[in-house]
Write a structure and sequence with these properties.
The protein has 425 residues and is α/β, with parallel strands linked by helices. Helix content is 53%, strand content 10%. β5, α14 and β6 form a beta-alpha-beta unit. The radius of gyration is 21 Å and the shape is globular. It binds Double cubane cluster. The site of Double cubane cluster has 20 residues, from α7, α9 and α18.
Length: 425
């Protein structure tokens, strides 16, 4: 990982230094094995390789420096938390790492064994003192999406004392919209209280511009993956989406646009990442938080190319922009509430928009097959697999349920290979 010695910084954050060194070692090796072995990567991926090498280094230093100037750091585990409000209060917003099997034994003292890997990971990272992001946050914003998260936040608050929960309705009726609007306002008030700064319409407009620019860069990347041959691997595109959750938003946007410039040239020259005729796969379902690269590594290691992620670390996060045409606080709150309530998370019922979106993406990305990915014990996404399959009837479809462990890697590989044979046949 990084060449600089950050030991003092990690000590100051109270990390468990021995376990932390082990974690960085595993992360670095996994990254090298999976990422640096790819051939013909875009040159602009150098930046994202650098960000990963500094994931617990330079970025944390930047965040701690921001804190020294009085800015507040807000962590979240869900795309429902409105980043614009955090930025408008001059805060730093980032999502917690929850994509690796860490501290499960300790997490299971608080939550049941049969809890999804993402929840276990955010509890495990905290309990084993391994995440500098969690340690540097002033506020962790939870939400009432799935039951597992909702209840885990209670324990996380017992442990950290800094969890604030937004109530997310589970339907989208007029009454639900009212409830959600009041939650968005309550969060604005909480951010004002935390930062000691009044959130103004101008500050919200500026924040909306920053976050929309980031979304537009991700949308551009997403559109470029529709080219045949695909100009970038799914692994690299997934990494860019994962990094979008914790990098500085302005820098991230610039570097992603730079990557897209290069991809446009590649598309013009028909310079693809995958072999000619490689099956194009849309991956749909539970989010893949950093460093969860397992399924993409299997799919692309088997000769296919992942061309899209119908997921919160993907399309669901950047599909919709915020309408910036507001001129009063009430209008701004209204527009924020409707932009976020448009997210098609499986925690909603009914959730027909998601199936329409899967259908549209399968077509626009020219996917030859869809792999539905649900984390084990993620009931909302496991349940929706049936309707997702129905939505793309006629397109080969594979359902996968897994966690972060590598124990089923071989078994999944066999299933994916058989699926790809079915597509080719
Ligand atoms: S908007 S998908 S980020 S809730 S994987 S913890 S749902 S049991 S992460 Fe999610 Fe927000 Fe929805 Fe997106 Fe529960 Fe499922 Fe675990 Fe999940």
């Amino acid at each position: 990982m990084s060449g600089k010695d950050y030991t003092e910084m990690w000590k100051g954050l109270g990390l468990n230094l021995e376990n932390h060194a082990g974690l960085l070692g595993v992360l670095s090796k996994t990254y090298k094995d999976i990422y640096l072995n790819q051939k013909n990567r875009p040159r602009a991926m150098d930046y994202f390789d650098f960000v990963i090498s500094e994931v617990h280094g330079l970025r944390i230093e930047e965040i701690l420096n921001a804190k020294k100037t009085g800015r507040k750091v807000v962590g979240a585990f869900c795309v429902y938390v409105p980043e614009e409000i955090v930025l408008a209060a001059d805060g730093v917003c980032r999502c917690g790492c929850a994509g690796a099997e860490v501290g499960s034994d300790q997490a299971e003292k608080f939550i049941p064994r049969n809890t999804c890997a993402l929840i276990k990971a955010f509890m495990g990272f905290k309990l084993s003192g391994l995440c500098p992001y969690v340690e540097s946050t002033d506020l962790i914003v939870g939400e009432t999406t799935c039951d597992g998260k909702k209840k885990a936040y209670e324990s996380l608050n017992d442990i950290t004392g800094k969890v604030y929960v937004m109530e997310i309705p589970h339907m989208k009726t007029a009454e639900d919209r009212k409830l959600w609007l009041s939650e968005v306002k309550r969060f604005r008030d909480r951010m004002e209280e935390l930062s000691g700064k009044k959130i103004t319409v101008e500050a919200l407009k500026k924040a909306a511009g920053v976050v929309n620019a980031k979304r537009k860069a991700l949308q551009r990347l997403s559109r470029l993956r529709a080219a045949a041959p695909a100009p970038i691997s799914g692994l690299d595109a997934l990494l860019v989406n994962q990094v979008s959750f914790y990098d500085d938003p302005l820098r991230f946007t610039e570097m992603t646009n730079r990557l897209c410039d290069e991809l446009e040239e590649r598309v013009a020259r028909k310079n693809g990442m995958a072999e000619k005729g490689a099956p194009r796969i849309l991956i749909s379902g539970s989010p893949m938080a950093i460093p969860n690269w397992k399924l993409h590594a299997i799919v692309e290691g088997s000769g296919a190319v992942a061309v899209g992620e119908e997921s919160c670390i993907g399309e669901r996060n950047h599909r919709d922009l915020l309408d910036e045409s507001f001129s009063s606080m009430d209008e701004a709150m209204d527009k924020l509430a409707s932009r976020y309530l448009g997210i098609d998370c499986a925690c909603f019922t009914p959730n027909n928009e998601r199936f329409d979106n899967i259908k549209t993406l399968t077509k626009s990305l020219k996917a030859d097959g869809v792999i539905h990915y649900a984390l084990q014990f993620c009931t909302p996404y496991m349940m929706e697999a049936y309707r997702a399959e129905k939505a793309v009837a006629g397109t080969p479809f594979l359902r996968i349920e897994t966690d972060y462990s590598m124990e089923d890697f071989g078994q999944l590989q066999t299933r994916v290979e058989a699926f790809l044979e079915q597509i080719k046949g």
